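tool_call: predict_structure(chain=1)
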Amino acid sequence: MGDKVDLINEEDIRRTVEHFTKNVYRAKDGSSFCEAIERKCQALFAKDYQFTVIHNGNGELCSHYPTKLIIQEYEVSSEDHPGAAVEPLYDIAKLRDFMYKTRLARCRGRFVVPVILFDGKHICRSATLAGGAEIYGRSGLHYIFSGGLSQAVEPNDTGIVGSASNNDWPLMDRVRAADINLLQMLSVTHICDLMLENKKVKFGVYVSSSEKIDKERRYDDFCLISTPYPGCEFFKDYRDNGFNAEGIKFDWSQQFVDASLSIPDSVVAGTTIDWHMYRAWDLIKITQNYLKLQLSIITKNDAGLLVHCISGWDRTPLFISLLRLSLWADGRVNASLTAIEILYLTISYDWLLFGHNLSDRLDKGEDIFFFCFNFLRHITSSEFSVVRPNRTINSSCESMVLLDKNSGSVLDGSIPSSHSSSKNTSHKNLDGFEGTSQFSENQLKCNSVIETEFYPGKSNALYSSSEGPSGTSNPVSSPIEVPLKEILELAKNEATPPSACGSWQMVSGLGTIHDATTPQSSPISQRSEKSSLSSASTDAWSDLQEGQTTRKQKLEEVSHLFRRIYSSVVKGRDYPEAGGITTVFDSISSKIGFKNL
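tool_result:
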């Protein structure tokens, strides 16, 4: 398996992109070239995961999906499991049956499929919910072409609840119930909807719906997140602007746009973004912030995430691909793959095999596919990393926290929510918003993870475009970046006496605040404590620097490779060059084995 993966090179990517620009993938076509792509994708997944395959044959599950759906179950390595087989996580026959029964529930039969495994949680993709016209229309066609055999969903022991008879349980209820059961089987709790509309209308007919407006409130048990994002047509403006996304803003006043940004408070609490301003963001900012939101969701929750737009083959692969590449750059998914391998995998599996119509998009100038990989330069910083720098500092039970004596701002410590006895101290976060931080002594105890939270002065609860913020000021906690470099440099300088800390005070892991000039322990214990912090923080800062440099280089390498290969295949377009990263790649090309970068 490994030998086959090693054969993947730039020519494989070039040939795949060339095929992609001329052909739309359909499972029933039986292309030998696409069969070879699927085999290579399986080999790439096998480097890091145990998976099972659900067969889609001639497209009997979905004609726009791969003939072999890869269901990742466990992260594995040759060291941990030398030749040992791990028991499958799913009953594949039952899972396939669920998928078969839910294909009427979503547009174009594009049911929920897990495509990324992160910390045991699935990131899934699909289309949006199908409207009644499509559900009943497709059901009728299936009935006709099956020779009169009903293919409707039947209640059984899989957990679908309802009447014991097909005839007295409406079709809409049955397929929606099956869809919900599939989501529950995959442990998905959050649904991120990228649609600009509540319902898609074509020729005066509602052709799709969405979870957020289900009249029967069937999806109320899920955390529904409405993040309206411009469709592929908008990317013609991106092309016409010389492939420069800066300053390109979507026209939210268009009549068909009736979905508003809606994020539950529990999800907003994981960000420091002023979401009320989303309509003022340009293409770069809105993509960055939505990606941050999705990363925050999958990191902070114990269950999975579903991402979808309308059909699930333009905006959906954009964010699925960005999620995969960002997590890969952090070493958290597909960790064994090289830059060439991850580029091949995401182009082939996330875009081509899930039905993106690149040839049509190129004809119309809707370069959303190119935007995805050109955009990687905008997510290289630690803001998008799930490996948080403030999680590696404390190496002993009595962790150290720095408190600014003048402002009361905790730069590195554990600040809980407003419970029990607490103190209020005003401070600003990095965006300059005024707020209050609340903490209590019993929260400044030994923690294996140091968290820093910020409480904005105004509520982050979101409202529809016709409404405005309520004006309430309920605090919402959010993580903020901390000045680790300054803190760690201070800790590393062992020759500096405590009084040199100036206005800084040391807060011990037990919550006691003592002035730098007031001895609180013996000189020996002070030196031991200081040395321990210095050693741990030096190692942490070194690891942090190395990790962020690696992340930046990895994403820039993928972006550079893509643009060079893509420009050689798609002729007649003035695609941007590598820009400012050419020098970076020249300097590291000898280390990573690439020539003439």
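agent: Residues 1-5, 143-168, 390-530, 578-597 have pLDDT under 50 and may be disordered. Proceeding to next step.
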